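Hi R.,

Here's the chain you asked about this morning:
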Amino acid sequence: MTRYESAKEIYAKYGIDTDAAIAKCKEIPVTLHCWQGDDVIGFDHDGGLTGGIQTTGNYPGKARNPEELLADMDKAMSLMPGTKKVNVHACYAIFEEGEFADRDALEPKHFQKWVDFAKERGMGIDFNPTFFSHPKVKDGLTLSSPDEETRKFWVEHGKACIRIANYFAEETGIPCVMNIWIGDGFKDVPADRMGPRMRYKQSIDEILSEPYDIAKVKPCVESKVFGIGVEAYTAGSAEFTLSYAAMNKDKCLPLMDNGHYHPTEVVSDKIPALLTFFPEVALHVTRGIRWDSDHVVVLDDETKEIAQEIVRCDALDRVYIALDFFDASINRISAWVTGFRSMQKALLNALCTPSAAMKELQDSAQFSRKMVMMEDCKMLPIGDVWAEYCRQCGVDADNYYDEIEKYENEVLLKRV
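And the predicted structure, written out as tokens:
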């Protein structure tokens, strides 16, 4: 008997079909973000990162151009099991030699290489307007700016991104989640909190007036509690973005990033709350340490609980899962692979959890027995199921870092 066959028998005693769990996990798309590969720099500017976010570290081998970034993503994805999408920020437009378009004038053609990359690999593309790291961020504000010229520039950027998202969906045949997030805010206590939010609301209204099919393009609004340089106030607070999404359910979705709340809040608890009222929600899964630090996702309690809630709520077809982290202090390929595998492990673990039995114990007020079952499940042989999942997907369950290290020595360290 193999280790997987033994694990399969153990799980069967809890009413879990591990073969079915593996088959289901293979189908769940997880979106891999391009910006881990070059520390959120992109291709349309030479300056540093702004907007209340930052990367730390200077590990060698950062991608310096589109060819290197796509090659690095390809290498990373070759070490990942499961179904993938790719997430692109607007600042990653790929221009031909001598060509340039500012962000308000971006066109689908500037992302054709991303489409070619995705279609060759059978993947969809998600998208993000880039409302940061640009000279037209005036006084730290974009869509909430009191300067009408500035605000209009960023509205036109958002509209252009709607058109590009529609292009992605039509070309790949897979819906495109397009996320609106701004870092607008103030370092110190503002004299006017409502004005920026009224302008932000007007700006989103104008962006979403651009025609699109909600079945193909899934605009989202994402909140932020604070950031570097915007400690006192953010225009796109949790209350603002959730209220906007609730009032415009026919036009957009709420997106929750689990680093964008107070440290004691957990997105896992918010998932069933939102699913009670919204047909679909979107996630950016990250790992914050004391703030929105965007550390690499690992198999920690909250990552596991996020996956558990999606599965418990029978919402795998209602929740769009994307990763969002950036760490420049470690090998960037390893960061991608570790984060993606951690999310996949969490999903597989959730699919192998006897949630229905636990719900019955909860509903019948058998709380002690429920606790015992929940604790017992922590010791089930999920590692053996994971190994079988990886085997069926054609990747190693462990020892994959050797391949990353080889790529580092042969490719990354030669980038000088």
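The chain has one domain: 21-351.

Let me know if you need anything else.
M.
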